[in-house]
Structures are given as structure tokens and as C-alpha cells.
Amino acid sequence: MDNESTYSGYSYKSSHSRSSRKHRERRDRHRSKARDGAMRGDKSMVIQAPGEPLLDTESAMADERDDNWAETTTVVTGTSVDSISNEDLTRLSKDLEDSLPVDCRRYVSPALGAILGLFSVLSPLAFLALPQLLWRDTLDPCGTPCEGLYISLAFKLLILLISTWALFLRPPQATLPRFFVFRCLLLALVFLFVASYWLFYGVRVLEPRETDYRGIVGYAASLVDALLFIQYLALVLLEVRHLQPTFCLKVVRTTDGVSRFYNVGHLSIQRAAVWVLDQYYSDFPVYNPALLNLPKSILTKKLSSFKVYNLEEENSTNNSTGQSRAMIAATARRRDNSHNEYYYEEAEVERRIRKRRARLVVAVEEAFTHIKRHQSEESPTSSPKHPREVMDPREAAQAIFAPMARAMQKYLRATRQQCYHSMESIINHLQFCITHNMTPKAFLERYLSPGPTLQYLDNNRGLQWTLVSDEPVTASLHQGQVFCLKRLDFALVVTVTPLPFLRLDEEFIDPKSHKFVMKLQSETSV
Amino acid sequence: MSFVPGQPVTAVVQRIEIQKLRQGDKLILGFSIGGGIDQDPGQNPFSEDKTDKGIYVTRISPGGPADVANLRMGDKIMQVNGWDMTMVTHDQARKKLTKQKEDVVRLLITRKSLEETVRLQLKSMLS
Is the pLDDT higher at B73 or at A5? Predict the structure, then answer.
């Protein structure tokens, strides 16, 4: 059967290439990533390649089928001739992951990049300093030309440092499953440059104790120039190339169908995934699992309408398929009124939400009228007679929360949002609004419409997404590509279409040619 | 029938009373109008002065109520039931004529031959 060949092909390819890929990944992860090093405790997303669980379920399914099928099937396991077995793989990866604590893994690669960067910046200074320190007496004195070179060297180094700080000294936003090709290329290039310069320096200058100091200074200046050019290349590859929009990505959430369109430039799949997730957190309304299902009353009525009686003997094997087919055919033939009930149920829910919302708005408006900002200068008439109690925002919020609490709770229950807003968070928000002189409507905007997901996140932990794609994730985007970003209970499906090529023509209309005449006489019969 | 803007208009007018005819669920008068302050006066075949933007009768359906009441093609309508028709848009004129609640319209119309008639009469009276 074709199933076996597909399975075996997949497992052979994946396990073979995955093992070598995993090893390469481990090596590269310790060597690569950008040359930045600042610490910032924000969210990070670990995107992992299609993981081992996929293979496990497939091999498990293959094992099940072994029991059902006849004897001419081949048994498929996760091993092939050239690679280690699946269990060893998982054990290895778990060991490596457990050895480094999670937060450290985020900063290993930027730290390496920072070390390399620091080394390359200090190299020209070392080139200049070493002859002075080691064989100062025998150096040719070098007057004005050297000083000119010193000045240019100093300024170029300053510019290099400032632009490195501006561009690259950022904490990484995400951990990518495979190494970032451009960054690794640039780091390798820097390393190569600096290493070859040091080699040349060591052989030609340190050994024979070169006395031409001007040449040495010129050499150091050329290294700084080369570093500036590499930085220009880095700027273009990492920051500029993907800015011009070339593709349109359609992102659809699988559970409730919320979709958005985004324009991106030339990116690899993993970078595009990170970009999409950034936009996801601020554009998509929060995923509320309670809102998804049809009301139970409708669904259960539909499913439990037929009872199937088994008239054959009990050990017939293909009973289940026959039964379900009969049920499906019968339900298709019967006249289906559940759309009616769905319509009325939805209208009823809508009405209930609107009523509760009206009650909530009125309650909040009234509550806000109980409170007033205290003016600092006191009018002499009011203070001796009625000393009003002066409260700080927190107490004021607690004081006016009581009348609106019930209406708020009922509204949140009706819109199934009660898990996102605890009483504490509502009082905090109320305090915030009171402090900033917001109106009741501004206070309510947070509850009346489901906000973007970013609003409900706590920033302490990183967020885990899984990238699922047919092609290797360092390949760049092209037309018709589809990849998925999965979380535990939902997924985002991303489809890539290229932006159309535009042909723009020019047409000149003389402003004096805008002339008008009255319409022809219209005749109306009465 | 020419007018000087800003000066009152003087004209010899004739009163015509038309009874509306019920056709289906509508009351019709049996003629067509053209003109109005939002139309092009130069296209009007019946007006002497091609800047006149008044309402003119452009067609009479034979045997209809207007024909019976002696309305002629080319008449300029000055008033309809007391409403002025010399400075109205085409649509306003149509509305004033087709009010479904009234079943009779009293028009004041003017035509060139009226002036001639009056002048001839005066001459014959004086001579």
C-alpha cells in the first residue's frame, strides 16, 4: 500500500537528516547569533522546528496498523541505517537543554557576538600599541602624516562604536529554530577579516619588528575601514533588505477564523514567522475558547437523533464504519431545522449582551459622578463646615467600584470574559483611569471590546510557538508557500502571495480644460 | 415676456383651470413641461428670450385634460394654484403640478399671441 512507502520515506529522510541537522544546529547555536549583548528582560519566543512528537505519533500509528493489517507489511520504526535512533535523539536534546538554564540560552549567542565585536574593535588599537610597547626605540619617527592618520582612526572608531551601539546592541527578540543565515555570514566574515589581519600583522610586523610606523598606522586604519564596510553590509542585509514590501501574508487563526493581511519584504520563513508573531500580539483580538462553540442545545440535538441497533452477531469487525456511514446518510436526508434554533439562540444572546451592556454603562456613569478631583486651593466657605474626606486614587477607586461591581460582573459573564479580568485588575484599571481624568467611556473601552492579546500577557515568561513548514525554515519566502505557527490550543496558518507588479502610466489633464455645460432640457410629463 | 432682473414682471396672462384625470392610481394632467432655473435656457424652443428660465408647456397629449381646457403648446406657466412658477427648479414645478391631493389646478399662463390680441383689442376699442 502507498501508506507504508510514504511513512518510510518520511521517517528515513527526517531521522537521517534530522540527526545531522540537530548536531549542526547545536554547534551553530553556540557559535552564532548577533553581536549584541545588552540585557532586557522582555518576552522571547522559542520557535522550534517540527519536533520529535510528530515522528512518535507516526511510528505509533504504524505500530497499530501492524496489528490490523496482514503479514505483507513492513514495520516502520524511527531508525535508519546511518543515524542514531529516535530515543537517543530525544535524550540528547533533553540533556543539552537541561544543562543550560532557559534564560541563559537566550543570551549565549549575543554574548559571543559581543565578544567578537569587542575583539575586532580593539584590534586596531592593539596594532598601534604593540610596536610602541615592544620596540619603541627602533621605530621611525613619524610626524604629521601619522597624526592625521591618528585623527581619522579615532573618529572612524568612534563612529563604528556609536553605530554598533545603535544598530546591534539590542537583545534578541526571539530564538529561531535554525541559525540566522545572514548573521552567521557576517560574524564569519568579521572573524575571517580580523583573523587574517592578525595573521598578516603577526608575520610581517611582529616577527621582523618592522620599523616603518607610518605603514603600521595605515594598516590599522585600513582595518577600521574594512570593519566599517562590514557594518554597512550588515546594515543592508539585516535591516534594510526586508523593508521594501514584496509579499502579502495572510494570517488566519484556526480556531475562530480571525484573519489579517500583512505586507513584508524578502525574509526567510523563520524571520517572517517572528515578524508575524509580533504583529499577532498587537493586532489579533485575544483568543477566547469559551466563545467558539455552538450552544450545546443545538449540537446535542443534532447528534443524538438516531439510535443504531446492531442486529448482527457481536464479533463483526467492521461494524463501526458501517454504522457511522448509515448515520451520516440518514442525517443528511432528514430535514434539518437546527439553523432556525441557532438563529434564534444567537439573537437571544445578542439581546442579553446588549441589555447587560446598557446596565453596565449606566452604572459606571453614575459611579463616576460620585467622585470629583479635589482642587488644591480651598474655598473658605466650604472647608470649616464640611471637611470632605480627601482620598488617594486607590481608595477612590475602591469607593466607587462597589455600585458598579455587580453590573460589571454580569456583563463579563455574558461575554465570557470573566477569566481575563479579576476584581483586582478592574480596580487597578479604575484607579489608573481616575488618575488620568478619563471619562467612564474611556474606562469601559477595555471591557466592551476584546482587546489585542498583548494586553493580557504577563511579561515574565517567554512564549513558546512551534513553526511547522514543509520547506527548510531558512528558505526565503516565495509564492504559494504555507506555514503554520502552533501553540497548544490553536494555530496560525500563514499563506504567502506576492504583491502584484504595478504598471504606472502618466496622464496630463490641462486645468483649463475643465469646462461644464448645463444638461439638455429635461421634459417631464405631468 | 422678457424680463429685467430685479424689476417686477408684467405680462398678460390667461387663467386656465384643468381638472385632473384619474388614470390607475394617479391623477394626471396630460401635458409635459420643460424649463426651470436649473436647466439650460438656450435649448428652449418656445421662449423668445433665450435667457428665460421659466416653465413652458412642451407637449399636450391630445384629448387629455389640458387639451380640453385649452392649454396650448409653448405657453409659459406663471403660477400654479397661487404658487409662483417663474423662479423654480424643474423638479419643484413638477411637484407643484402633481400634488395627488388636489384634483384641480388653476394656472396663469402667458403666450405671445395674448399680447397681440390685447393690443388689437385696444386698438379696435380706441379707434
Answer: B73
The whole-angstrom separation of Cα B38 and Cα B46 is 17
B87 located within any domain: yes
DSSP A143: -
Residues of B in contact with A518 (CB under 8 A): 38-40
Residue A48: pLDDT over 50? no
| Cα gap A48→A485, rounded to integer Å | 10
Averaged pLDDT of chain A? 76
- B110 in reach of chain A (CB within 8 A): no
Q: Do A517 and B40 touch (CB under 8 A)?
A: yes
Residue A525 half-sphere exposure toward CB, CA atoms < 13 A:
12
Which three three-digit cell numbers place residue B19?
Answer: 381638472
What CATH number does the domain containing B37 carry? 2.30.42.10
| Count of domains observed in chain A | 3
Task: Look at residue B91 and tell me whether its pLDDT is greater than 50.
Answer: yes
Do A113 and A233 lie in a common domain?
yes
Put simply, the answer to whether B35 touches A521 (Cβ < 8 Å) is yes
Q: What pLDDT is stored for residue A501 in this prediction?
A: 93
Domain extent, residue A410, equals 337-378+391-449
- Note whether A390 contacts B: Cβ–Cβ < 8 A: no
Give the model's pLDDT for residue A461: 61
C-alpha–C-alpha distance, residues A397 and A435, integer Å = 10
Mutate to test the interface with A, among B26, B32, B83, B85 (most CBs of A within 10 A): B32
Assess if residue B44 is contained within a domain. Answer: yes
Are residues A363 and A277 part of one domain?
A: no
Domain-embedded: residue A306 = no
pLDDT of A101: 54
Q: Which residue of A has its CA nearest to B56?
A: A523
How far away is chain A from the Cα of B11, in angstroms, using its nearest Cα? 24
Q: What is the pLDDT of residues A480-494, one digit of tens each?
A: 999 999 988 889 999
Q: Residue A95's pLDDT is what?
A: 53
Q: Which of B28, B58, B97 sits opposite A523 (nearest CB)?
A: B58
Residue A440 lies in a domain: yes
On whether the CB atoms of residues A248 and A277 are closer than 8 A, the answer is no
Number of domains in chain B: 1
- Residue A54 within a domain: no
Q: How many CA atoms lie within 13 A of B109 on its CB side?
A: 23
SS (H, E, C) A196-256: HHHHHHHHHHHCCCCCCHHHHHHHHHHHHHHHHHHHHHHHHHHHHCCCCCCEEEEEEECCC
Range scoring the smallest mean pLDDT among A266-270, A294-298, A322-326: A294-298
Q: Is there a domain that residue B94 lies in?
A: yes
Structural domain includes residue B1: no
Please check whether residue A326 lies inside any domain of the structure.
no
Residues 6+ apart with CB under 8 A from B68: B18
Q: Given A518, A520, A525, which is nearest B32 (Cβ)?
A: A525
Residues A439-456 have a mean pLDDT of: 85
The string of pLDDT tens digits covering residues B19-40 is: 999 988 888 899 999 988 888 8
Q: What is the ipTM of this complex?
A: 0.74
- For B91, nearest residue in chain A (alpha carbons): A524
Q: Find the domain containing B93 and state its range.
A: 13-126
**Residues A232, A353 within the same domain:** no
Q: What is the pTM of this model?
A: 0.59
